Amino acid sequence: MLLPALLLVLGGAGCSSTKVNTLEPAQPAAQRNMISDKRVLMDQSLSKSVSVIGVNTAQGSEGFLKIQVEVQNLTRKRRFFSYRVEWFDENGMLIELPTNVSHPRSIESKAIAVITATAPTPRARDFRIQFIEPTK
Amino acid sequence: MKKFLFPLTLLPLLFTGCSSSKVSYVDPNSSRLIATTDSINIQDFAQAADAMTASLIDNLINQGRLKSSVEGEPALLAISRIVNNTGEQVDIDLLVKKIRVALLRTGKVQTSTTIAYGGPEDPLAKEQQDAREFLNGGKKPRLPDYTLSGKIIENRVKAGRVEQTSYIFQLSLSSRDGIAVWEDERTIVKQGKRPSVGF
Q1: How much is the average pLDDT of B61-81?
Q2: Least CA distance to A65: which residue of chain B?
Q3: How many degrees, rounded to 5, is the angle at CA A57 between CA A55 and CA A62?
Q4: ipTM > 0.90 for the complex
Q5: Model's pTM, two decimal places?
C-alpha cells in the first residue's frame, strides 16, 4: 500500500514542467520572407531543446537587415539556452561591437520562441547565430 | 631520524604546489560569465545596450525618422542624465558607451564629447571648440539634435530560498523641442538560490 503511494508522490514531484498550447491564424496575413539556412548540429540534445523552425528576414528603408528566428522546444521540460548573433559585411568580415554578447533565454516545453536581431550597420549582409546550452 | 626528515622537508613543497589558484581568461561575450543576483554584471549591461540599440535602429533609424540639422552629416547626440536607482554604485558608462559605439557604427549618429550632462566628457576638445568659436568671431558650435536620458531601476524579491533581482533599464531620446522621439524599457531578471547555511 505504501509503495504505490510513494511512487505517486515521487511522480507528482517530477511532473512540474509546463507545456504550452498555441493559437494563431490558420491563414497568416503577414508575408514572411523565409530563407534557406545551413545548420551545423554538434549538440543533439540542444537541437531538440532549440529546434529551429525557420528564419525570416526583412530590410528597412535605411538598409538595416533584421532577422527573426523561430525555435521550438521539442522536449518535455523547460530548457535554458544562450544565443549569440554575429554579423558579417559584404566581404564576409565579422563586424565587431561591444554589444555582440550572448543572450540567455528559457523556453517552455513545446513552446515556440522568437529570436530577433537587427544588424548594427547597413553594411551587414550575412549573419550567423550560435546556440549553446548553459554550463553546469 | 634522518629517514623521516627527508619526506618531511618535501611536505611543505607539496602543499605549496596544491594551493596555487588557476586563473583562466574568459571571452567577455561568452555565456560562461559569472552571474549574480546581488549586482548588475557586465553581461547585463551588454545585453541591455544591445537591446536598446536594436530598438533605436528598428524604430527610429531604419524607418528614416532620425533627422540631422546639418544635411549630409550624421545626427548629433548628447548624453543627458541617466539616473542610477539601484542599490549599488555603478558607472553608467558601462551601458552608455556600448550604445554610443554601436550608434556610431551605424554611420547615422555621432555623439558630442563637449556637451553632456555634468560637463564635457573631453575637456581638451571643449577648450579647442571654445578657441575656434573665439577665432571664428563668436560662431556657435553645432548644438545636439538629440539627447539621451534614462534610468536604471532595481527590484528585489524573495520567495523562500529563491532570490529574484530585476534590473529595469529605461531610456529616452529627446529632440531639441523636448519631445521623446524614441523610448524603450528593457528588464533583466535573475534568479538564484541562497545557501541554506550562512547569509
Answers
A1: 95
A2: B62
A3: 160
A4: no
A5: 0.82
